[in-house]
Every structure is written in C-alpha cells, then in structure tokens.
Amino acid sequence: MATVVQLMDSVGFNRGGLTKAIYDRLHLLSNSGFEVMLIVTGPQYDVVNITDELKRLGVIPENTIIKALFDESFSQGTQTQKIIDYSESFKKQGLYSLEYGSDKGKVVRYFNEYGAFLGLDSYSSQGVKMYSDVHRIESPHEICKRIHYDSKGRIRKVEYYDSRIWKPRFETLYSLSGNPIYSCWISENGSRYRVVGFCKTQKGKAVQYSSFQDMQASLLKPIVNSYPECTVISDEPNTVIFLSKDYGLNCREGIGFIHTTHDYVNASGEQVNKPWLSNYTLNQGVLSKILTTNDQQAIELRHIIAGADKNNIFSVYHGVVPNDNLAPKQEASGRLLYLGRLSPEKRVDLVLKGFAKALNTLPHLSLDIVGDGPVRKELEALADNLNISNSVVFHGYTHDVNKWYRLADCQFLVSKFEGFGLVLIEGLANGCPAIVTPCKYGPDQVIINNVNGLRAQATSEDISQAITSLYNNEKLVKLSVGALSTVGKYSKSHWEEKWLNILNA
Length: 505
Prior knowledge:
Elements: E1 3-8, H1 17-31, E2 35-40, H2 47-56, E3 65-68, H3 69-73, H4 86-93, E4 96-102, E5 105-111, E6 117-123, E7 129-135, E8 143-149, E9 155-162, E10 167-174, E11 180-186, E12 192-198, E13 206-209, H5 212-225, E14 231-234, H6 237-244, E15 253-258, E16 263-265, E17 271-273, E18 287-292, H7 295-302, E19 313-315, E20 335-339, H8 348-359, E21 366-370, H9 376-385, E22 392-396, H10 401-407, E23 410-413, H11 422-429, E24 434-436, H12 443-446, E25 453-455, H13 460-470, H14 475-486, H15 492-504
Parallel strand pairs: 1-2, 1-14, 2-3, 14-15, 15-18, 18-19, 20-21, 20-23, 21-22, 23-24, 24-25
Antiparallel strand pairs: 4-5, 5-6, 6-7, 7-8, 8-9, 9-10, 10-11, 11-12, 12-13, 16-17
Helix pairs in contact: 8-13
C-alpha cells in the first residue's frame, strides 16, 4: 500500500478553503487505497484531541495516521522538573479575585493584599483553562509572561513578553512529560531565531539550530524516512520548505500546492513576488512538482521558477459535485449572501456599502453574512453606521454551506486577492451566481460576465448597480441557468481523476 504524507503547520475546525481542500484530498486518497498520514509540523498541542474530533465528525478519514511533530519526537521520558501552576500561585498570593465571563469564556483577575494586579486566568466556553498572564509585581500594568495550557491542564508553552510592545520575545515549548523541547528568541515581527533544542535522551545536552525550520526538519526526517516510498504533499509556504531544501528526506517525491496569489503591488506601485515564493524551488530537495488552483498562475510561475515546465508546474482546480437534478432559480427570494472568512483582504465592507446603496432602490432585500473572522465586530459596527442592521444578519460559521447558496439569489466575492475562491464553484453547483470584482485568479477565471455572474469594479457604486441589475429583465433566471451549465468544468470527478493520475504516475 502506497503512503501519502500530508504536511500541515496546524489543524483545527471552521477553517477556509485551503484546509477544506486538504481534508477532501485526504478522503479521496483514503478511499482510493492509499495509506494516509497527517503530520502537524508546528508547535501545536492537543493535536490528537483535535484530530480525534475531526475523525468523529467525518471531516478527515478515520484511518488517518496522525503525527504531531513535537509530541511524536518527545513522547518518551519522564518529567524532569515541576513547572509552576500559575493559577495556584495566584491564589496563594492573591487576596482578591474578580471573575467575569461571556458566551466565549471567562476571565479571572487576581490582586494582592495591596490591590496590585498580579495577572489572570483565561478559560474557554467549555471551562478549559487556556492561558495565564503573569504581570510584574513592580509594574502591575506590564505583562511579564503568558503560560499556555493543553486541554488536560498541562503547561505546554511559556512566552516571555517585552512589555513595551506587548509582544512575546522569548518562548519555551514543553513536552507532554514536562521536559523542555526548545527555547528560542522571537523578533518583533514574530519570527523565531537563536533556536536551542533540548535532547530527550541525554540529560543536560542542548543543540543550537541555525533556524526554526532546521530544527523542525531534524524532527521530521526520521518520520518521513521510515516510509521511503511515500509521497509528501505540502499546501503551505512554511511547510514546503522541508521539501524544497535538501534536508535528507528519503521519499518518492514531494509536491507543493500554492493556493493563493504569489505577488502583490508594493508601496512604489511595482508588482513584486511575495517573499515566501522563494521557498518553492525545484530539484534541490525532494520537491518535484508545484501545483496551482488556476491556469494563469501556473503559466506565470513557469516564467519565474528555475527548471519549470508544463510537466512540473500545472493547475489542479478545486472540485464540487454537480447536482444534475437541481433546477435553476425561478423566483427571486430577495436574499443576498456573503459566505467566507471575515478578514481585511475579503473586503466585506465594500459589500455592505454597495448593499446599503442598493437598498435605496430595493428596500426589501436582505443580506446574510455567513462566516467569522477578525473583522466581524468592525463589520457589525459598519452595518450599524450605515443604518442597515435590520437588513443584515451575521450568522457565524456553518458546516452546511449548500443551504445558504440555495436560499440566496446571488453571492459576493470582492477580495483583493484569491487563489481560486472555492465558494464560487460551490455556489455555481447550487445555481447561485456571483457578483465579483477584478481578481486575476479565481473570479476572473470562474465567473463569466452575464453568463454565471456579474463583474463589477471594486467600488460601492458599481456593486450597488450590479445588485440592482440582478433583478432586471429576468436576469437572475438567466444567471442561475448559466451557473448550473458552467460548473461541470469544476466537477469533483475531474479533480479526483487528476490527483490519482499524479500520485499513480
């Protein structure tokens, strides 16, 4: 049985299209007779608990072999030192405590006998302690360190803060048994340097690595090399480095998949490559193929990456299952949809502003925003400021995306950049056209103006006009028919066939 190793920096729930594509591929490979292994390369704890739940929910195959890189490499040994439980320390020092909570969890703050702030414990909504913040006795307003716990209450990481910038500048990761795994310094931009690893078999011995990636590679190598005929796949710039550099991996081949745009316009107006693109080098390590989600990007990369041609850089579209029995939309529901992550590059604020203008002409419309992310509160505030809160509903994250596409007349994708935009073809498969703004990967490839969607400029006025035109002259019916007729190019069967051909070549 051939083995496919999937590298991921971290695993979790409620993530975007990239993670969804990885999980779908794990199912395909498992169902096709491959032995599937998932290696989490980042310093993440509770990996087994998370992946057990993902298996229970059917998100990843039940027979997936799970390897948490740091726990796997440091699973042996007995606890060598007692690490302070800071919450107990707080209770011993603190004469006073203040507890407050919400639906997202609770925080307990501690104060000493003189009223000085000592620190806090933060708990999840399930009552699991996530971290403790310790403040300086002499400067109670300044954080000194943050202690992170796993779901069993064990201390797994301690970060030491520079209170001037409120960022960690040093960290130590601990194994399940309480031994230190590594310590490192952290730059102001968050990158790790001067990495020191602690030997699990020889007490008192430490090793300094030239980079954090070099330490990770030293832990990854023995795992991969125990499966010498395996294929290793990476979908992230920070894991593809293990394949593109010569770290002595002994495997059949390495495949790197790029899911996002590789360039951007800098402050001088120049189109330049993103720094992480240098991680994608062919034929130096085991990386032998680079895949993209769209044709245009594959063409561009062949002119940038040395040794590239049509055989080692090409596209593999995301896939969906078309519903041949689904009828196109016949009557307008008046509901519009944004489904996706709520982050700055998605420009959901443009959607809200364009929708607000359209309401002046079509006051019966409503907008469903399905998803979550770092700018949700800002977007909710914007809806209030635009006086459209009664017409906009923020639903949070959902697993059942098809329901929303079928309820909506149309969805929006107005991102600054996309690698593909999985939501577009999910919508097409449900007869839901899209209003998109210029974006050379994804929207520009998938959406054909006035066939399966509408193209608008990235202004609130243009988006408003596109919304209004959607309800003129039965255009909605025409676009819904176009959505269902053009999704075949992105069928799941084509995606499956292409992946199996790659892995069986």
